[in-house]
Amino acid sequence: MIRFEHVSKEYSRTGFALKNASFHLRKGEFMFVTGPSGAGKTTLVKMVTMEERPTSGVVRVSGYSSESIKRREIPLLRRRLGVVFQDFRLLRNRTARENVAFVLEVTGADTEQIKPRVLRTLAAVGLSDKADRLPSELSGGEQQRVAIARALVNDPFVLLADEPTGNLDHRIALDVLRVFKDINLRGMAVVFVTHDRSLLEHHPGARIIELDEGRIVGDSAAEEDPAA
Ligand SMILES: Nc1ncnc2c1ncn2[C@@H]1O[C@H](COP(=O)(O)OP(=O)(O)OP(=O)(O)O)[C@@H](O)[C@H]1O
Ligand SMILES: [Mg+2]
Predict the structure, then answer these.
(1) I want to staple 94 with a disulfide (CB 3.0 to 4.6 A). Which of 59, 98, 115, 189 is the partner?
(2) Is any ligand 1 atom within 6 A of the Cβ of residue 41?
(3) Model confidence over 81-91: pLDDT tens digits?
(4) 76 close to 47: Cβ distance less than 8 angstroms
């Protein structure tokens, strides 16, 4: 699904953001990526979306490789990834339902199918009753649920979230974590990036990758699979 093989990213002005990182995300896995500010978490996410390429090593995502992917193939890869950000990034003048539908419209989905798919996805994040609200009429936690629905609606093979609870109070953060756990229970792989270690104890079964200064300094799955 996602495999990093000795991946390093060096920026000419700031040095190594990622150093010799190797891991393998399996189908249906829930993986936390944690570590202090500047550890390389967002850099790792950008390597998966191929927004950044490694300086050395290889990133493999769903049949594509950072060594051979062509520029025109990157949008095809991105369509297979669901990405959620800290700041929600919703369209302000569209309702929850329209924000989610927009993704399907731009990818040319069958118009007949758009409405039921959108409603199903909003139901999956617990937002059926607020489908017709604008982002400004929703709480932060609710806006993040819309963003999660938008990431899910194209049926990606993995949901990638970079500090999805960074703008939310702890209690709301736990609600949003619960949404990701529920989605994962239905079989979707999740990569959940957070510097907030207190969230980790609310999902004891999850895999934890710990970054520090660009290095993977801990991987809870490493003992089970030394090759990962
Ligand atoms: N485009 C860039 N050019 C130069 N240096 C960068 C760039 N992006 C990130 N860095 C540096 O790489 C390191 C890792 O950054 P990254 O954004 O991956 O950290 P992070 O773990 O996501 O931190 P945070 O928790 O604050 O979001 C930092 O030292 C950062 O300053
Ligand atoms: Mg970051």
Answers:
(1) 98
(2) yes
(3) 999 999 999 99
(4) no
Dihedral pair phi/psi, residue 174, rounded to 5°? -65, -35
Distance 118 CA to ligand 1 centre (A): 34
Q: What is the largest CA-CA distance in the chain?
A: 50
If one residue of 43, 53, 192 were mutated to test the ligand 1 pocket, choosing by the most ligand atoms within 8 A of its CB, it would be 43
pLDDT digit string, tens, across residues 151-176 = 999 999 999 999 999 999 999 999 99
Residue 47's contacts (CB-CB under 8 Å, 6 or more residues apart) are 4, 7, 9, 18, 53, 54, 59, 66
Q: What are phi and psi of 183, to 5 degrees?
A: -65, -40
Cβ of 40 less than 6 Å from ligand 1: yes
- The structure's pTM equals 0.95
**Ligand nearest to the Cα of 39, by number:** 1
